[in-house]
Write a structure and sequence with these properties.
Ubiquitin-like (UB roll); 33% helix; globular; 28% strand; 11 helices; L-amino peptidase D-ALA esterase/amidase; 2 domains; homodimer; nine-stranded mixed beta sheet; alpha+beta
């Protein structure tokens, strides 16, 4: 497996484009389109938020047909809490693309991200989509990746290639997300493409597995958005045989997809709103995986832990307090805590000021691992979290100003 | 019922004092003592955090005897995650007070607040406690209230009086708390005294009811500390007859206690770390009270909602997103949202920019109410939350520096 250039258009047969159509006030790209030369199976994972945005409702509906050809995404407006009109607008977006590229509306998927509760400026979209279709090209991945951003500071792209049954098979992807980032998806849109040949049911299972191990393991602010979407479109154009679930070839593809999702998830973390640090939280020795995850989640979302990370303060007591209030029946006297393998707590008590000084040095790093051992069983979990900085407050207090 | 001066020493027969003994580096009071002339029933409510501090473990043990005479509280060190030595130290604190005031060690209760994981400087306490005992006096409530503070900017006191069966009965109290504030207690210590005559079992029930309606309804940062404690000591010295549960006289006392706890809880909220606003979150029309509380809690702890409050941004979409991810099976199309009674969302969609401008004006206030109607049933809940400001991050990033 090797990393290559090209992002979402790296696999064979994919075109993309991104332009400014006027949804955002500033003259920056705000509409992206990804199209495959051939239609193919598409898999999707969506937000668990019960206030789901119109594009999510539409995509879920279109996914029943299991066939995809194009994905249109706008930034600057989430088309959420927009009622029946929002759904009509999302349908019209899909219809405009379907007409432009010559396909059925149900094979067009729609994504939106931005402010909640305002109607989509449809005039901009009616004018913009035909222009966008004309601009589609192989090298359009980078500009599409830019057009889906909101408070993100960097475009997030990935492209990985491996050889399967003698053929070069590629997975490409792009993502946006920097706030409302939390397990079970985030205000996060991620789109993946591949030229692998695969049945929809197998692709869906592969995508769900990859998402579980990547996007569902990152937390920036504990919020889950109304618009979260991960889609993966496969057009089979690499010419490799159809991947069978359980085969060694499928395992190679799963690895490709896992790495692509993980790369995008880490890019989202590092570009999190106001983020200066990305910290891996590992919980071991739990009775069950759910327990391990619950403890990791409580640490990863504690504002007191996150501000201590920002302040580079080795205030491990806040981690202990978070473990204690997680709801899991832990035994405080068995707790162990380590930073990058250096123990600071054994049997629930401090190992002293020398250990604390070593921890303090580790905390100056941009990325490090905190390990908690519960001493109760064999189950483990891990999550990635970020610090909470002045800039997080600034960005979110002034988001719409 | 009327508010009077005097704080924790307002009820008859209570003395207090607060001095600097050297637990804190700065020369500010760090040790408080409250003593009743007569011993009496004491009630307690403690943190649910499984990593409970040594003083909490000791107080739970002493509470089995149901009798209290004195409460000693230090600030600057939480005596948490300090293992067996921490418990020995807490016991010694109680013993030193018991010797000083001439009572059994099990009728002395201990509270600690401050940094986690460092041993208590017992030399300071051994030197300080005898001095503190000598300083006990009726007018000592204010200095005791000061000596229990950490990042608090203001002392928190209350004293309320009513007439029960022809006698003046008084409840006094003091509290500390400004971070780690969340339902099911907070890094919050609250001590109440009364000269009412009441059995311990009745007092315990009354205190639990008052705490449920006050301290358990405020959230500053979603964290629950290792040290949370609320104690209420009753010495019966007002001369009124013993209060019987269910009697009209008991109802008067419950009201006194409710108001005292609520006053202290609101003082804690307003003095929350970096707080510029206190917002009441009311959820109505839920199927069950647990559902209503769950929705209110998700809104009250969302960093995106809290930064929008700080930025005075009428970004109600973030409240909708919080409702949607609360885990409660809501129907998005039935949601209603109002600020100070002014509706902004009906049937899940926006009422437009005029309503939004009115909401924006309300958000400039220091205190206001947000009401969510779920349209599913009759149950309701309410919580108080605060905004998330630059100062919250500053205070918590630099806490130990």
């Amino acid at each position: 497996m090797k990393e290559i250039r090209g992002g979402i258009t790296a696999p064979l047969g994919f075109l993309a484009a991104g332009i400014h159509v006027g949804i955002k006030k500033a003259s920056v790209p705000d509409l992206a389109l990804v199209v495959s030369l051939q239609e193919g199976p598409i898999a999707g994972v969506f937000t668990k938020n019960r206030v789901a945005a119109a594009p999510v409702l539409l995509d879920r509906l279109h996914l029943r047909q299991r066939i995809g050809r194009a994905i249109i995404i706008n930034s600057g407006n989430a088309n959420a809490c927009t009622g029946a009109m929002g759904l009509t607008d999302a349908e019209e977006m899909a219809g405009l693309v379907a007409r432009g590229v010559g396909t059925a509306p149900h094979s067009v998927f729609v994504g939106s991200t931005g402010v909640i509760g305002q109607p989509l400026p449809m005039a901009c979209l009616r004018r913009g989509i035909p222009t966008l279709v004309k601009r589609l090209r192989r090298s359009g991945g980078a500009e599409a990746a830019k057009a889906i951003l909101t408070t993100d500071t960097k475009a997030k792209q990935v492209a990985l290639r491996t050889r399967i049954a003698g053929r070069r098979v590629t997975v490409g992807g792009m993502a946006k997300g920097s706030g409302m980032i939390h397990p079970d998806l985030a205000t996060m849109l991620a789109y993946l493409t591949t030229d692998a040949a695969i049945q929809q049911r197998t692709l869906q299972r592969a995508l769900l597995a990859a998402v579980t191990r990547s996007f569902n393991c990152i937390s920036i602010d504990g919020d889950t958005s109304t618009n979260d979407t991960v889609l993966c479109l496969a057009n089979g154009m690499a010419g490799a045989p159809v991947l069978r679930a359980g085969s060694p070839e499928f395992a190679l593809f799963q690895r490709l997809l896992d790495h692509a999702c993980f790369s995008l998830a880490m890019q989202v973390c590092r570009d999190g709103e106001g983020v200066t640090k990305v910290v891996e939280v590992v919980v071991t020795g739990a009775r069950t995986q759910a327990n391990a995850r619950q403890v990791a989640k409580t640490i990863a979302t504690s504002n007191l832990v996150k501000t201590a990370l920002f302040g580079e303060d080795a205030n491990w007591g806040r981690i202990m307090a978070a473990i204690g209030r997680s709801g899991v029946r832990i035994d405080p006297n068995k707790l162990e805590l380590a930073f990058e393998g250096i123990p600071i707590v054994k049997e629930g008590t401090s190992l002293g000021s020398l250990a604390e000084r070593r921890i303090a040095r580790i905390m100056r790093r941009k990325e490090f691992t905190v390990t908690v051992h519960l001493g109760q069983g064999q189950a483990a979990a891990r999550l990635w979290t970020t610090d909470l900085s002045y800039d997080y407050v600034r960005i979110n207090a002034t988001y719409r100003s």
